[in-house]
């Protein structure tokens, strides 16, 4: 197979890899080692170089923006949240609860991070190692002590005392200098509000313009943004949540950013099967929660069906096994399932999203309200697997090649286990890679039909890229009968396939 002319015209690396860093937790750990407050300037070049050597194209810094005392106090007083904090940190202290990084009081870099100039230097250091920087944009809400509450109360959704009586989990009195107002908590249509946030009113054209300006200011400081709960700003979703008719926000906002900063990347946190719609709004990448949920369910057919979607759609999906919102992959998946899920997730098209600590087998999820994480020993088995995966992901074929979901068939009559298999290939002018997984809790067999030209008349070498095992097969047999595969429960192969000089 040859790569398409379309791919040749693209300047950016396809199917990039991203590492999410919990900035405040990372710097807290660094501060303890340095016995002083650490900033982004204190992250050593050796650490940045390690990220680059691992193959990451993007570093996503979670929670660099300024937060306030109101959000911090709400986080500390919420009993449900505190229970979660105590499950994470058995030695929890009050100072560990620093407030959610999504309860923002202003899009200025927090002083504890180092301020604007420190962020600028960090971005330059990343660029020196060939990496780009991504930051947060939280379009749906602000913190209760954001200056706009005092200066522009019309930017927020107002409530009444009746609202407060009937839905106190969605509204609250907010204290101001000269009066108090009942304002709505930020929320989505399916759950109660987030009590450390205040809902922005996109029915107000002045607010829409102000948020576009905020996005432009953020874009001047980084190479891309992750847009929190991006689908909440769709007119139909906003109307369903608040009963307010709004104009579309994203197409104009994204157009302005990309006109001002060509090449800027917009990544949307998206749920409810709205990925395609948000891509049409202008997003470069959208979360693929559907694949994650289907992998967790452990049934192969829905996974295979999802990966049958068009390549243009799949290339814009964000593939992940964990992030700051999800439970740790090592705690969700048993190790045998974890490996197969990683092969499927990170070796299919799209942006590969890795979370800090994921590759070390961390099991405890760290809330975005916390400034400190637990001490967990790395799992050497998981660490070794991901180290190999990162090495493989640097192969050009996974970025320049053509991906294809390929067929399997029964190994023999009356053997239904072939239905548990999934196979796909990556091919370019130099390299052919074949992945085969048995996504089931019992052994199975199948035949895989290889999408290779000139299969017959040659011998073929299959080198397992994870285990360095070699297999040789007759091309005429492969052409006639397919590749016979026998795998244990949750087994997998990742083959580099090469023809040999020997003719049959």
List keywords for this structure.
504 residues; alpha/beta; Immunoglobulin-like; 2 domains; 23% strand
Please give the order of strands in the largest beta sheet.
1-2-5-10-11-12-13-14
The CATH architecture term of the largest domain is Alpha-Beta Barrel
The total domain count is: 2
CATH topology of the largest domain: TIM Barrel
Q: Overall mean pLDDT score?
A: 94
Given as residue ranges, the uncertain stretches (5+ residues, pLDDT < 50) are 1-11
Task: Please explain how this structure is put together.
The chain is of the alpha/beta class and 504 residues long. It folds into two domains: 13-156 and 191-394, Glycosidases (TIM Barrel); 401-503, Immunoglobulin-like, CATH 2.60.40.1180. 34% of the residues lie in helices and 23% in strands. An eight-stranded parallel beta barrel has the order 1-2-5-10-11-12-13-14, surrounded by six helices. Strand 20 (458-464) and strand 21 (470-474) form a beta hairpin. Mean pLDDT is 94; it is low at 1-11.
């Amino acid at each position: 197979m040859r790569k398409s002319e379309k791919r040749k015209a693209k300047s950016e690396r396809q199917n990039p890899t991203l590492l999410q860093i919990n900035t405040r937790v990372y710097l807290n750990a660094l501060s303890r080692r340095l016995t002083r407050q650490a900033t982004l300037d204190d992250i050593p070049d050796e650490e940045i170089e390690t990220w680059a050597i691992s193959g990451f194209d993007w570093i996503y810094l979670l929670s660099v923006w300024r937060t306030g005392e109101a959000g911090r106090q709400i986080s500390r007083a919420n009993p449900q949240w505190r229970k979660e904090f105590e499950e994470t940190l058995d030695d929890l202290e009050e100072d560990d609860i620093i407030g959610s990084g999504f309860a923002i009081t202003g899009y200025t870099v927090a002083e504890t991070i180092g301020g604007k100039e420190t962020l600028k230097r960090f971005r330059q250091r990343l660029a020196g190692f060939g990496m780009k920087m991504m930051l947060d944009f939280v379009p749906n809400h602000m913190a209760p002590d954001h200056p706009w509450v005092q200066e522009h109360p019309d930017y927020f959704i107002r409530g009444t005392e009746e609202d407060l009586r009937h839905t106190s989990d969605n509204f609250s009195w907010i204290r101001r200098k000269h009066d108090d107002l009942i304002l709505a908590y930020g929320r989505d249509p399916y759950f109660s509000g987030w009590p450390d946030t205040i809902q922005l009113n996109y029915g107000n054209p002045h607010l829409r313009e102000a948020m576009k300006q905020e996005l432009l200011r953020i874009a001047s400081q980084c190479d891309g943004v992750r847009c929190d709960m991006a689908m909440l700003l769709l007119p139909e979703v906003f109307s369903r949540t608040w009963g307010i008719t709004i104009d579309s926000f994203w197409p104009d906002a994204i157009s302005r950013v990309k006109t001002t900063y060509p090449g800027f990347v917009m990544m949307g946190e998206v749920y409810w099967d709205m990925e395609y719609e948000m891509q049409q709004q202008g997003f470069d990448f959208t979360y693929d929660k559907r694949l994650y949920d289907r992998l967790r369910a452990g049934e192969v057919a829905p996974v295979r069906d999802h990966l049958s979607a068009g390549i243009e759609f799949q290339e814009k999906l964000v593939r992940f096994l964990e992030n700051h919102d999800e439970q740790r992959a090592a705690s969700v998946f048993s190790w045998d399932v974890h490996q197969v899920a990683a092969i499927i997730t990170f070796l299919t098209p799209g942006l590969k999203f890795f979370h800090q600590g994921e590759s070390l087998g961390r099991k405890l999820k760290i809330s975005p309200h916390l400034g400190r994480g637990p001490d967990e020993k790395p799992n050497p088995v998981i660490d070794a697997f991901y180290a190999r995966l990162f090495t493989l992901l640097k192969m050009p074929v996974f970025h320049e090649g053509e991906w294809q979901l390929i067929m399997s068939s029964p190994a023999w009559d009356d053997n239904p286990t072939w239905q548990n298999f999934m196979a796909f290939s990556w091919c370019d002018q130099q390299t052919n890679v074949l992945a085969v997984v048995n996504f089931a809790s019992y052994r199975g067999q199948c035949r895989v039909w290889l999408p290779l030209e000139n299969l017959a008349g040659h011998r073929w070498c299959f080198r397992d890229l994870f285990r360095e095992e070699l297999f040789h097969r007759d091309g005429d047999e492969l052409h006639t009968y397919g590749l016979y595969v026998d795998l244990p429960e949750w087994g997998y192969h990742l083959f580099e396939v090469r023809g040999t000089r020997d003719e049959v």
